[in-house]
Amino acid sequence: PPLDNVINLHDFENVAKLVLPEKAWAYYSSASDDEITIRENRMAYQRVWFRPRILRDVSTVDWSTTILGQKSSLPVYISATALGKLGHPDGELCLTRAAAKHGVIQMIATLASCSFDDIINAAAPGQTFFLQLYVNRDREITRKYVQHAEKRGVKGLFITVDAPQLGRREKDMRMKFVDDGAGAEVQKGQEVKKDQGVARAISSFIDPSLSWKDIPWFQSITKMPIILKGIGCAEDAVLAYEAGVQGIVLSNHGGRQLDTARSGIEVLIEVVKALRLRGYYPDPKFEIYVDGGVRRASDVLKAIALGATAVGVGRPFLYAFCAYGQEGVEKAIQIFRDEFEMNMRLLGARTIKDVVPEMVDASSLSSH
Ligand code: FNR
Question: What's the ipTM?
Answer without folding.
Answer: 0.99
